[in-house]
Design goal:
By secondary structure, this protein is α/β, with parallel strands linked by helices. It is built from 8 helices and 7 strands. Bound molecules: S-adenosylmethionine.
């Protein structure tokens, strides 16, 4: 392969961007992004993860963050991926056959988890919470924190300025949110929050 060919390939869009654009055009309020997360954003979302960490990823999309979770050393069998879009879920199953891929709405998260399983250490969410009614966020968050160990945390990214979860919702659930990163090298730039028990 010539040097010129290599250069041209490097200019090509990120893998799976076309899946995103297609799904976004069909279901904009459900997908909530035009492009998979960048590696820079994904690296922020895996802080603290290591071999032995148990992780749930909500709205895993085409697997951009999933790859970073596994690269952080998380064992595939310790990772559960929740994705409601059929096309994305099929892609995830193909790419991550040793992880638990669940085609489901995150609003019913607990229904799909083993009730006897150990609580997880991290939940990573790419769900477009800004598009969700507050009562839906409350329902999802309450299930997330039932699934997390006492000192576990939820990483949530958003494209809006400000935490995508209202203060009243955080208060009802006894949670606090801290902005931990602003990733400019992402389209669009993203804000990452770390949400823990208060
Ligand atoms: C902003 S994209 C993020 C995708 C991926 N995590 C990334 O960072 O590239 C949001 C994803 O959440 C999924 N999603 C939206 N609402 C959902 C829900 N209620 N339950 C499960 N997945 C959902 C969408 O299909 C989409 O894949």
């Amino acid at each position: 392969m010539s040097g010129a060919e290599v250069d041209v390939r490097q200019e090509l869009p990120k893998p799976h961007t076309s899946n995103f654009v297609r799904s976004m055009l069909r279901q904009p309020l459900k997908v909530g992004a035009l492009s998979p997360s960048s590696r820079h954003l994904a690296n922020t979302l895996v802080r603290g993860m290591k071999p032995g960490s148990r992780v749930i990823e909500l709205g895993a999309g085409t697997g951009a963050v999933t790859r970073a979770i596994l690269d952080a050393g998380v064992r595939p069998g310790d990772l559960t991926l929740i994705e409601q879009n059929e096309e994305f879920a099929a892609l995830l199953e193909k790419q991550f056959p040793d992880s638990n891929v669940v085609r489901a709405n995150a609003v019913s998260l607990r229904r799909y988890l083993d009730p006897d399983a150990e609580p997880v250490d991290f939940v990573v969410s790419g769900l477009p919470l800004l598009l969700f009614p507050e009562r839906t966020k409350l329902r999802i968050l309450s299930q997330v924190f039932k699934s997390l160990r006492e000192d576990g945390c939820l990483y949530q990214f958003t494209y809006g300025i400000g935490c995508p979860i209202n203060r009243s919702t955080l208060k009802i659930l006894g949670l606090k949110a801290s902005l931990i990163d602003i990733t400019m090298r992402n389209f669009p730039p993203a804000f990452t929050y770390r949400i823990t028990r208060a």
